[in-house]
């Protein structure tokens, strides 16, 4: 009998705790966090590129926008934890503009970075050098494309072929 009472008290306590947390969460309501929607995933320039490039992809390929570098490359093993975390910190919050991969197994073929006029700034050039070297050392081809007001299907088809030709097997 005592065990039943103890067990019942534990269950009632857990249920009460759950409802307190729910009430606290509800009371915060909309607008209690400092976030707002970005509105769109891609910039106008990225969307122009994406809209044409996806049309030239043959069956079996897909283009994924804004993929974290850490989802494409990883820090190799054998490093001291401090070093590993330092190198990881340099890729975990960066993204690449586009990744071309297989629809069947998501195998990465190559990545694309669009370069606009901001890439002329020294801080962007330092970032670009790091990204280029990291991708090269990891064996993942990276193509850099100057942004344009428009893109032709022919130039996109050539870019796709160049990406496939740059594969390191």
Descriptive report:
The chain is of the alpha+beta class. The protein has one domain (44-165): Alpha-Beta Complex (tt1808, chain A). Helices cover 47% and strands 17% of the residues. The chain has five helices and four strands, in the order ααβαββαβα. The chain has helices at residues 2-28, 44-56, 81-89, 122-138, 153-165; strands at residues 61-68, 95-102, 108-115, 142-146. Strands 1-2-3-4 form a four-stranded mixed sheet. Helix 2 crosses helix 5. The protein is globular and about 80 Å long. The model has no long low-confidence stretch (mean pLDDT 87).
The SSE string, one letter per element, is HHEHEEHEH
The major pleated sheet works out as: 4 strands, mixed
Q: Average pLDDT, to the nearest integer? A: 87
Main CATH class: Alpha Beta
Query: What's the helical proportion of residues?
Result: 40-55%
Fill in the CATH topology.
Answer: tt1808, chain A
Please indicate the count of domains.
1
The share of residues in extended strands comes to 15-25%
What gyration radius follows from the Cα positions, in whole Å? 24 Å
Shape: globular
Secondary structure: elements and pairs:
Blueprint: H1 2-28, H2 44-56, E1 61-68, H3 81-89, E2 95-102, E3 108-115, H4 122-138, E4 142-146, H5 153-165
Helix pairs in contact: 2-5
In short, what is this structure?
With 169 residues, this protein is α+β, with helices and mostly antiparallel strands.
Question: Main traits of this protein?
Answer:
single chain; alpha+beta; tt1808, chain A; 4-stranded mixed sheet; 5 helices; 17% strand
């Amino acid at each position: 009998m005592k065990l039943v009472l103890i067990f019942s008290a534990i269950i009632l306590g857990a249920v009460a705790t759950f409802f307190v947390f729910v009430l606290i969460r509800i009371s915060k309501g909309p607008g209690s966090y400092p976030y707002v929607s970005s509105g769109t995933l891609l910039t106008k320039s990225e969307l122009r590129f994406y809209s044409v490039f996806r049309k030239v992809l043959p069956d079996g390929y897909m283009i994924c926008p804004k993929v974290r570098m850490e989802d494409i490359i990883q820090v190799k093993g054998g490093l001291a934890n401090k070093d590993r975390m330092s190198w990881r910190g340099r890729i975990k919050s960066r993204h690449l503009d586009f990744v071309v991969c297989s629809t069947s197994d998501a195998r990465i073929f190559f990545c694309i970075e669009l370069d606009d006029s901001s890439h002329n700034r020294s801080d962007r050039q330092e970032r670009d050098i790091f990204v280029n070297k990291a991708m090269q050392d990891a064996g993942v081809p990276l193509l850099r494309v100057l942004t344009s007001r428009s893109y032709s299907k022919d130039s996109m088809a050539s870019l796709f072929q160049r990406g496939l030709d740059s594969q390191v097997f």
